[in-house]
Amino acid sequence: MRSTAPPAAVASPPSSDDGTPTVLGIDGPADLTDLGITLLKQLTERSQSSADVVLVIEDLDAILDAVPLRRAFHFLHVLTALVRINGVTAYYHYDDIAAQTLETISVLFDDEPPHR
Question: Where are the domains of the chain?
């Protein structure tokens, strides 16, 4: 899925001379409030730099398994809007999502999600 580190981490543009991105994490994928706040702060701050910003959700399954679909959909809806507003490139990866769940969330993304 394209509309973008483990499900609870933010990778920023390289912050050092060696080109290593910064990764920020939270307690777990069920803590969508902290994840959302972390993403909001980091993506807004980093999108104001001249560097390209890429967000990667490596395991969308973890989020979808941790919370009810309605809550996950709301979170992803807000996240994809945040990504678009800040001009960030985002990639969402998953392993095994039920067809009905995939159909429900696919309306949020530009491209159909690829399998890992």
Answer: 9-106
